[in-house]
C-alpha cells in the first residue's frame, strides 16, 4: 500500500485510467484508443476477474454514460476528501486503494449469482433454465422459495410452492433478482473485521428494514414491488464495501488506522452512493437500479431523478424516522428530496408503511429484551 507523496490529481487520473480499462475489459468493452496496453499491469486476481466476465456483451451507450457519470462522481468525491483529509497518511492510503477500484474493492458475488443475474439481463431465457441454475446453489434456491411463498404472494390465495421453476415463474425476473441479491448481500455483508462489525451490522439491519418499506412504497411511485424491495435492500451496499476496504487496508498496513476527526463520517457520506452504484453495475444489476443506488440521497449526484430513487429515498427516511423515534415533516422530506411524485397520493401509503414499520420495530425491541444475555 503506497503512501508516497505523488499529487493526488495525477494518482487519481492514473487510477481512474486503470479502473476504466479494467472496467471496460470486465464488461467486454473496447479499450480506449491509446490505452491498449493498460491491462499489462493487472494482477493475477484482476486478470482472473476479467477473464470470467469476457463473455458479457457490450452494454448499450446509455448504460455506459450512466456508469461514466457515477464513476466521475466517485472520483470527484475522492478528490474532495483527499484535499480535505489527505495529509493524514492512512487517509491517503485508503483513498488510493479505493480509487483503483480493483477487484478487491468490488468483489464478484460467489456461487451462481453472477450467472443468474447475467441470464436476467438477456432478451430471452426460460424459467426452466433459471431454475436449473439456481438449483446448484442451496442458499439462493431457499431464498427464492421463501420469496415466492412470502405473505405478499401467499396473501393473494396462492398455494405454497416447492418447485424452483414454479417459484421463479410466480415472482418473475424482478423477484428472482430480489432473491439473488438477498443472498449476495447476506454472504458479503458482515465481514469488515474486528472493530467495525458492530457498525456494519447496524447498516445491514437498516438495509434489511428498508427493503419491505420500499416494497410497500413502490406502487406509489409506479415501480414494481420487487424492484423496490431489491433497491431498499441494496441501497447502502457502498457503506459495507467501504468498511471492508478500511479493514483490508488496515490488514495490509499491519497497523491500526488513524483518521482525522470527522473523516469517517465524511467519507461514508460522500462515497457510499457512487461506490454502491459502481458495485451494482459490476454485479450485473440493471442500470436504473445502479443509478438509483448512486443517487438515493438525492443530492449532487449529477444523475437524473427516477421513481426508483424516489421510492428508496422515502423508504430510508421512514426507517430512520421510526428507528430513531423521530417525527419527520413529510412536506420537508418531499422538498429536501426534490420529489416529483405527487405527495397527496402518497400519504395513505406513508401512513400504512409507518404503522407497519413501528409494529416491526416494537416486535424487534421485545425480541431483544427477551433474548437471553450472551
Ligand atoms: Fe440508508
Ligand atoms: Fe445511504
Description:
- This protein is mostly helical.
- The protein has a single domain (8-370), classed as Hypothetical protein af1432.
- The protein has helices spanning 8-26, 44-52, 61-85, 89-99, 113-120, 127-134, 138-148, 151-154, 164-189, 197-217, 225-234, 237-253, 263-282, 287-294, 307-323, 330-336, 343-370.
- α12 packs across α13 and α13 runs antiparallel to α14 (287-294).
- The radius of gyration is 21 Å and the shape is globular.
- It starts with 7 loop residues before the first helix and ends with a helix.
- The relative contact order is 0.10.
- The model is unreliable at 1-57 (pLDDT under 50).
- Bound molecules: fe (ii) ion (2 copies).
Which class in CATH terms? Mainly Alpha
Radius of gyration: 21 Å
Q: Strand percentage, roughly?
A: under 5%
Helix-strand pattern, N to C?
A: HHHHHHHHHHHHHHHHH
Separation of termini?
38 Å
Q: How many strands?
A: 0
Query: Unreliable stretches, pLDDT < 50, 5 or more residues?
Result: 1-57
Element layout with pairings:
Elements: H1 8-26, H2 44-52, H3 61-85, H4 89-99, H5 113-120, H6 127-134, H7 138-148, H8 151-154, H9 164-189, H10 197-217, H11 225-234, H12 237-253, H13 263-282, H14 287-294, H15 307-323, H16 330-336, H17 343-370
Helix pairs in contact: 1-3, 3-4, 3-13, 3-14, 4-12, 5-9, 6-9, 7-9, 9-11, 10-11, 10-12, 10-15, 10-17, 11-15, 12-13, 13-14, 14-15, 15-17
Bound molecules: fe (ii) ion (2 copies).
One fe (ii) ion is lined by residues 235-236, 272, 296-297.
Amino acid at each position: 500500500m503506497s503512501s508516497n507523496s505523488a499529487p493526488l490529481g495525477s494518482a487519481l487520473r492514473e487510477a481512474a485510467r486503470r479502473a476504466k480499462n479494467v472496467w471496460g475489459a470486465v464488461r467486454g468493452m473496447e479499450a480506449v484508443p491509446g490505452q491498449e496496453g493498460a491491462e499489462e499491469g493487472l494482477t493475477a486476481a484482476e486478470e482472473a476477474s476479467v477473464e470470467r466476465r469476457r463473455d458479457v456483451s457490450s452494454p448499450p451507450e446509455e448504460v455506459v454514460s450512466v456508469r461514466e457519470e457515477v464513476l466521475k462522481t466517485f472520483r470527484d468525491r475522492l478528490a474532495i476528501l483527499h484535499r480535505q483529509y489527505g495529509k493524514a497518511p492512512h487517509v491517503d492510503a485508503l483513498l488510493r486503494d479505493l480509487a483503483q477500484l480493483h477487484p478487491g474493492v468490488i468483489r464478484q458475488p460467489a456461487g451462481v449469482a453472477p450467472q443468474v443475474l447475467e441470464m436476467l439481463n438477456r432478451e430471452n431465457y426460460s424459467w426452466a433454465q433459471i431454475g436449473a441454475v439456481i438449483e446448484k446453489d442451496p442458499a439462493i434456491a431457499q431464498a427464492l422459495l421463501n420469496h415466492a411463498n412470502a405473505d405478499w404472494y401467499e396473501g393473494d390465495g396462492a398455494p405454497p410452492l416447492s418447485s424452483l421453476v414454479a417459484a421463479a415463474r410466480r415472482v418473475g425476473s424482478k423477484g428472482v433478482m430480489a432473491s439473488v441479491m438477498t443472498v449476495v448481500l447476506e454472504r458479503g455483508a458482515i465481514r469488515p473485521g474486528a472493530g467495525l462489525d458492530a457498525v456494519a451490522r447496524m447498516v445491514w439491519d437498516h438495509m434489511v428494514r428498508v427493503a419491505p418499506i420500499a416494497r410497500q412504497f413502490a406502487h406509489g411511485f409506479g415501480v414494481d414491488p420487487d424492484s423496490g424491495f431489491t433497491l431498499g435492500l441494496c441501497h447502502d451496499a457502498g457503506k459495507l464495501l467501504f468498511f471492508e476496504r478500511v479493514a483490508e487496508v488496515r490488514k495490509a498496513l499491519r497497523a491500526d488506522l488513524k483518521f482525522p476527526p470527522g473523516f469517517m463520517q465524511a467519507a461514508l457520506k460522500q462515497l457510499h452512493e457512487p461506490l454502491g452504484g459502481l458495485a451494482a453495475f459490476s454485479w450485473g444489476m440493471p442500470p436504473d437500479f445502479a443509478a438509483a443506488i448512486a443517487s438515493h440521497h438525492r443530492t449532487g449526484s449529477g444523475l437524473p431523478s427516477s421513481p426508483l430513487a424516489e421510492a428508496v429515498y422515502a423508504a430510508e427516511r421512514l426507517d430512520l424516522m421510526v428507528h430513531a423515534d423521530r417525527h419527520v415533516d413529510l412536506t420537508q422530506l418531499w422538498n429536501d428530496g426534490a420529489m416529483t411524485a405527487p405527495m397527496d397520493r402518497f400519504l395513505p401509503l406513508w401512513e400504512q408503511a409507518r404503522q407497519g414499520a413501528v409494529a416491526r420495530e416494537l416486535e424487534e425491541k421485545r425480541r431483544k429484551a427477551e433474548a437471553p444475555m450472551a
